[in-house]
Amino acid sequence: MKKTAIILGATGLTGCLLIKKLMVDNRYETIKLFSRTRIEGLPNTVQQFIGNLLELDQFKTDFTADEVYCCIGTTAKKTPDKKMYRNIDYGIPVSAAKLAKENNITTFLVVSAMGANKKSKVFYNRTKGEMEQDVLHQGIQHTSILRPSLIGGEREERRILEKIGLKVFRLMQPLFIGPLKKYRIINAESIAQAMVNLANTTSNTDVIITSLDIEQLAKSNIKKD
């Protein structure tokens, strides 16, 4: 039987790549997108539910699937207000996990960040760490938390300073060897592929997936059902 997948954060870099991958994957029959804005030009196999994700409960009836891919995330530049930042980076993934549990969805994958730590003094890291803790608290059978390092890839929105920073960081990549290897830039393409592979195998036992492991999972050949 073919599956249904939910994507949160479909308008972001990783989410966009996930849509493309799932649309051509014959294991999936329906893809549900929950977002604030509609994406034009998608086929009928993609159902779009538009609304305020900070009030995710409004979608409870439609929030049914085999898997949830949560790629929600903002930046301090886009969301300088810390309360709103937390509402997005903590509130939406945790609300999604609660709905998934209530609706008997058994696979939940969420993109977090390297450095996530609920005890951190750094607001960003602490927020991510608390999100991870409360997602895991839901007890969803197959939960995977991906902790990528700096994410690379072509974004539609213009982020001039970020692009410059990425270029400089890319030039430094050969210096990241040994213990520093985990800080290498990871492409959003690898994150999206790793999530699809994780959702379609029961062999992986790690709940927390580090950046280096994400790269390996993206390259792995998962046998299709």
TrEMBL record:
Pfam short name (any one): NAD_binding_10
Domain of life: Bacteria
Gene3D superfamilies per the UniProt record, alphabetical: NAD(P)-binding Rossmann-like Domain
InterPro entries noted in UniProt: NAD(P)-bd_dom, NAD(P)-bd_dom_sf
Domain NAD(P)-binding: 9-156
Official protein name in the record: Uncharacterized conserved protein YbjT, contains NAD(P)-binding and DUF2867 domains
Native species: Maribacter stanieri
